[in-house]
Records
---
Amino acid sequence: MKNLTKNYKPRHYVPLFTSLLLAMVMGCNQKPNDKVPWSLLFDGETLEGWTQKGGNAQFRVRDGSIVGTTVHDTPNSFLTSEKMYDDFILELEYKVNPTMNSGIQIRSNSFPHYRDGRVHGYQVEIDPSERAWSGGIYDEARRGWLFPLDDHPKAQNAFKQNEWNHYRIEALGDTLKTWVNNIPAAHLIDDKTSRGFIALQVHSIGDDQIEGTEIMWRNIKILTDSLHNYSKVSPIPPIITKNHLTVDEKKNGWKLLWDGETTQDWRGARLDTFPDKGWVMENGELTVLSSGGAEAAAGGDIVTIDTYGDFELKVDFKLTEGANSGIKYYVDTDLNKGPGSSIGLEYQILDDARHPDAKLGSHEGSRTLASLYDLIQADPNKPVHPIGTWNSAYILSKDNHVEHWLNGVKVLAYERKSEPYRKLVSESKYEKWPNFGEGEKGHILLQDHGDRVSFKNIKIRPITKAE
């Protein structure tokens, strides 16, 4: 038979409707005579290009497949690609024991500073249980469920028990999409991590589970070039995490402190309303503008309308070069009616390498990033993301025990109202404020220190006395 497409050249007068119809039928932008340039991640014979991390489950090659086998008394085990990937399209097949739980890690990482090297990142779930969330997206060792499948029955029914199942996973920019046996499953827009390894998971098992159960993977292939030519459209409405609560956050009582668009829940620290200058809200980012480094000289600090006692607080922030700002808590806006910022305990936000404040303070290093400003230095080995990229702050305050975290790592802890704490205050710039930082409740504050700094994903979980 002759190859009728070999010398085919597209004609400019092909009707637009025909072109659109062809794209819809194919489900992507790939031309009908294109050969998809897949690269193999598994050669079918060896584990070359892969490294094991985490637990001690067994991984071996058998009959052209990677076989993972459970063992007792070990944490989750991961066979990770030695190569790192940002944007890609991944396809593979797997067959899993019905009693197991597993997953495919994408854009995942393992750092010594993060939980002693624990593998963390996006996981495309493999779930043969009655819950049937195969193809959903979980954030391993971080935020929990991001895209469960309880509202997607077609995707839940796509998985085939005791048979080989096919996954397609697309990671393009901040958009993650999955298909199970060609059925759309998940559609997530999330910008937490842009690059990492791919990994095959063998989940840990309890004492009541049988050791030696297996999961198998084969035909593992990846695309990394010209992805727009091959990306498929998903009919599933996306879940967007930016300035939204995740599934697990809603379940656990978190509250969104900024909706990404309006001034709701905030006012000026010395105003009844939100400042009419000095702050902008664009592209889901709340940004204090530069005014040349003068403290509270433009729009001024902003505070939550509500006050909080015990709490957990999460804030993503992005510094510009040489910038200074802060997140304050237990703020009393009735204090300090004069020049400068409102008074409260401060999680310092600073470009340590370029701002002179990093070398100042009542105690050495106490004005560096993530420190308790002017009182306690954050761990000097803290993980810091580069200027112009996002960092994540977390503050826990419960029963006067307070912790500061940066990018998932605890960098300091102290006891409010304790004698060591009061001694530090007496030696600091705050000694003139009676009972500084000891209020039962206070506002959360974002500081205007005259430098451009952006915030997003501002969330709080009030802690009740019963907890």
Note: The radius of gyration is 26 Å.
---
Amino acid sequence: MSRRLKEYLADPFLKMLYDEVRAAGKIQSISMDLNHVCNIRCAGCYYFSDRMDEGHHTADEAVFDAFIEQEKQRGTNFVTIVGGEPSLKPERLRKIARHFKASVSTNGLKKIPMEGLEENLSIGVSVWGNAETDRRLRGNGKVDIFPQALKNYKNDPRAFWYYTAIPGYAGQIEEVVARCVDNGNHVLFNFYGDLERYGDKLDHRRGFEEVRQAIDRVIGRYPDRIFMTSYVSRVVSTGRLYDQEWGYDVCTSFSTDNPVNLARMKNGHPYSPHFRAYNADLQSTRRCCTGIDRDCSSCFDVWQHFSWIILNMKKHLGSKGEFTRWLTTMYMFYLINRLVDFERGSRHIAEIHRRLKEADAGIELPQAEMAG
């Protein structure tokens, strides 16, 4: 343990977070598309915008079972389940949960059952705005997805809201978060990337300053219910981490078995050597979680940015405040995905936000970060 790290961990709260993460162990993760179909069409969905469903149809049962055994043998212990729409395959979710810790992203329209999925599963329920906005952008103007999802996951201990914040709809954030919290759930934010170049209110090129301000306000209002921290919000939405600018060359979550990534693996930036992003056929992998050949400047995926921060620990050792930003990012990732005790860990959320506010107030940010 370095002298600086030992000094920072003299703080009992930081030591507690650090020890809980260490006790949980190293993550050996993959991402998998559970199927290639969906029961709605969200405006500019990365999965269909980048044609990930083409040529990669859902694996049959024999292939699925063989895949589980393959990943167990390979040492995988955490699975991010996407698609398509995973709720359409509940039996396969049960199989995964029997063997791995897992997080699943769902549109919320069809409830993921409780039976056989009480443990090992964290459920991120998508929402893009208030009921009218969600109906228009995700329900094709016809399907009331948000009200149905609220009903499906009311007081569900497995569920949190995976709120994709859109630049032109920042004014809806506080009212939507209030409904989610009143529903008995936590909230994590994602940021919308305008892959289809719809422009106007959907255009990420407008910047996320108003979104970040709204997120900071809901953190202040519900400090024990918001998984997104001010630090992660800033890194994701600005694409800056110290001297690095977000893009393919620094992204840490890509398929290490895919030849397209060989040059990236040799450029000196850290990455997760175990990670693979499997297509729905469960036999092929794509470049990364959210794209085949998309422009990474449109990627604001919070999971990939979590990994970017986590694997750049050494950059965060310059001060106690910087280390606090890194450790709380690591801890929040473990907490959201139930890799640490969720009930105990949830009691730390408000203090994590308080510590980060204290760090931002008392410690000068690195110049590159301030520039973002």
Note: The longest helix spans residues 320-336.
---
Amino acid sequence: MIPGEGGGKPGGPEEYGAEPSLSGRARDHRREEKRALAASWEEVYGQGPAVRLLRSFLERGEVPHAMLFLGPRGVGKSTVARLFAAAYLCPSGGLDDCPSCRRVMEGIHPDFHLVEPEGLQIRKEQVDELERSLHLKPAGGKGRVAVVEEAGTMNVYAANAFLKTLEEPPPGTCIILVAEREEELLPTLVSRCTAVRFHPIPTGEIERYLVEVEGLDGVEAGEISRWSGGVFGRAVSWARDRRRLRFREAGVDFAARARREGLADLLFRLGELREEWESYSRREAELPEAYRQAVDQWSLQALKKKTEERHKRETARRRREAVEDFLDGMASFYRDIIVYDLVEGGGADPVPRLVNRGRWQEVESEALILGRKRAGEKLALVEWARRALEGNVDPALTLDALAAGLKGWARPSLR
């Protein structure tokens, strides 16, 4: 069981640095944080219809020039997009462990182009640069694949600039847009793409995966799958990277203490946690050794620049994930209070319905004092903070305002 999920009093931020006990193969995942969720078609979990459709495109040689991968965040869209790119560019026509496939999976293949938001948006300049790259002769001679992550963040100028390329891309080019919902994109973009849909995975299936593939014991797997809310990528990330999981537990603990502690204490805790997730998000930019030895000086400088840009995006992504996990933990505690109040009022046992079952005593105590109405108000504040972060508001200011709102010192607009 994860520390802090027992019936005793939870620890403060100073305890989050302690290494939780890991079971079975999960110990190895501390050294494997960077490996993909899947390295082959067979390892893609719970997305059989989408995988079969994509493999049929490759086998028939009828790959659409533009595809739109749709589904909730964390269900495997990006992983499958990279697998498809590797298979499409593979000299043998399949998906194997050849140098071409490895370079695609590492994001350094010259014919594989990845576009991600810079800040909140994908800008027209990024689209222009991609289009220039797609019109160059393929280095491998087979074709090119471009994957546009979070395609819904394209601003209107970028989206309009992309229309002609989507309709008539250069020969041998496949473009994959990745988004959660069609509504995020201009209808003119959607109409030019073949849609491939990905679906959430039941928590029971996630639990089985965590036991059979990730090597967790049944108790850990059940807890993590329940906490994940059915988001496969989040569950696997938590199983492999326990520092991420501690940020979620920190959020649960923060919500459990918020009523009892003063604003100064809460702000102090947030300061400690900010140091922790800043440390977590920073990684050294790594240039693949093979490229250091194999490319000329001009190409090496270009690769270094590309690697640094990717590293900045990765750092921002890891910081965002840490804060999102913290807010997810807070939200789950307030939802548990609401559930407890409703179910107990109906005469049933509320504990099996809770997400944080190991903290049912704290949930019960807060439910008796707050009730579901006030818990709902606090949950609305957490959702406000989540929207503020999505709007690129500074995380430190957002969380300080959230703490002040929880204590009644401020009234953020909840619209």
Note: Residues 1-22+216-415 form one domain.
---
Amino acid sequence: MARRLSKWSLLLWIWAFASCQEAPLVQSVYSFHHDDWYADSAIVVDVNVTDSLAVYRVEFQVRHHAEYPYSNLYLFREIRSESQTEYQDTVEIRLSDAQGNWYGTGIGALKTLVLPYKQAGLRFPKTGMYRFRFQHGMRDQPLHGIRDFALTIEKEDLSTE
């Protein structure tokens, strides 16, 4: 009986902890029709930032099919405020090693890779609307094999540091 009680109390604690967590500021998923991503089809996510003192954890996910023809993916990334470009870069994402083993997780032909937008948390200089924009930088038109792209933005809990 004691063993059964401890399992239930552990499950109850996990459920209580998960339910008390703050919901993400943004959780957006874009699925590509027929797994084809066209270069002129930018992924755009608008975010209303109400706390400029907070640190945010920004992650994006790329879900691709095992038939994706490359070991990498180039992304053009941009963050715009209401008045200017706050951040802009091009990043190469390594999807597999030199032997063709996929880095992402998943069962079967779909693999998902979760990556931070930046290694450190992200702060927004002022409150207001921000636009995140992602566009692939590969030569193929369309780029075949990319199934989904997701963006998640959450406040980091700095109280435990």
Note: Confidence is low (pLDDT under 50) at residues 1-19.
